[in-house]
Design goal:
CATH topology of the largest domain: Spore Coat Polysaccharide Biosynthesis Protein SpsA, Chain A
Number of helices: 10
Helix content: 40-55%
CATH superfamily of the largest domain: Spore Coat Polysaccharide Biosynthesis Protein SpsA, Chain A
Distance between the termini: 30 Å
Number of domains: 2
Length: 334
């Protein structure tokens, strides 16, 4: 039985040899046949050269294929590219920095094979050593995401095993802007969990800057929930209640025969209402921007180069709606 391993990679030159030794040591002990799909997401270092060397490895139970994206499209696009090319009965997504321990792959396969659980996910028992602000930010994000979407994402990671039917459903989802963790939870398939503690990175640095994390939080919350839009309604209701209270107070003071100067009150009202209007327009604009990105139906990624022992990895083709309709292979050029 063939199992696919999807490894998104960006600027991991320093740790790829270590990853290769670790992953092959685990796979050699398994009775499964493996397909390792390594996706270079626009690396600017020497990662692609090292990945290319791995594809020449001749191992009877391990087939290595490489996909190079034309630029950095993001981790979500790299995962999608790998899943679209995977041919296994199941696929395991893991990072190349070894923060997703390859030693857990046999346990994942056992849970999947024994119970035919469609999804086996790695759940972080605790986060790796991070700053206090980053831990608090991550905790706040997952709380807001869970509240707005109804999906429990606490401790979630991209380290997952997906059954073939889950892979097919994920690939066929119409979204261009994807969130792998959220969508696999949203699909609602039964899932088993394996807890793990991510080890510290021994080489390189995380590619997730504060700006990238904030952009991911904004995009995922908007993609999964309309709850932020309701804030506009709540602001309107709050403004109405405040206006009615202020009107009653003003009429009462007038009826009692004394009235305060109204200029400061008018200024505060203008500033408050103006701020609420601008905030509401900005929030609505975020949703319009998300709609705009989706209706363009641009492909999530573009493949510039592929390598495999048989050179048969395909480049997806898209119709006007952005759906994959065919795949061009190197074999067709021969």
């Amino acid at each position: 039985m063939l199992i696919s391993l999807i490894v998104p990679i960006r600027n991991e030159q320093a740790g790829l040899d270590r990853f290769w030794r670790a992953i092959t040591a685990v796979l050699e002990k398994s009775s499964y046949e493996f397909e390792l799909v390594m996706v270079d997401d626009g690396s600017s270092d020497d990662s692609w050269r090292l990945i290319s060397e791995f594809t020449t490895t001749d191992r009877p139970s391990l087939h290595v294929a490489a996909i190079r994206l034309s630029r950095n499209f993001g981790k979500e696009a790299a995962i999608l590219a790998g899943l679209r090319q995977a041919e296994g009965s199941a696929a395991i997504v893991l990072d190349a920095d070894l923060q997703h321990p390859p030693e857990l792959i046999p346990k994942m396969l056992d849970l999947w094979d024994q119970g035919r659980t469609p999804i086996v996910e790695g759940v972080k028992r605790k986060r790796q050593h991070e700053s206090f602000m980053k831990r608090m930010g991550a905790s706040l994000y997952y709380r807001i995401f869970s509240l707005s979407s109804g999906l429990d994402m606490q401790g979630a990671s991209d380290f997952k095993l997906l059954d073939r039917r889950v892979m097919d459903q994920y690939i066929n989802l119409p979204e261009t802007d994807r969130y792998f963790r959220g969508l696999t939870a949203w699909m609602g398939f039964d899932a088993a969990a394996i807890e793990f503690e991510p080890p510290d990175r021994e080489t390189g640095e995380s590619g997730w800057s504060l700006h990238n994390l904030l952009a991911l939080a904004r995009s995922t919350i908007i993609s999964f929930s309309s709850l932020p839009l309701r804030i506009v309604t709540w602001l309107g209701v709050a403004g109405l209640i405040f206006s009615l209270a202020l009107t009653i107070q003003t009429l009462w003071h007038k009826w009692m025969g004394f009235a305060e100067e109204g200029f400061p009150t008018v200024i505060l009202l203008i500033l408050g209402i103006g701020s609420m209007i601008l905030f509401s327009l900005g929030l609505i604009g975020e949703y319009i921007g998300e709609i705009y990105r989706e209706v363009k139906r641009r492909p999530s990624y573009i493949v510039s180069e592929t390598l495999s022992p048989s050179n048969d990895i395909s480049q997806p083709s898209y119709n006007q709606s952005g759906d994959v309709v065919s795949a061009h292979t190197h074999e067709e050029d021969k």
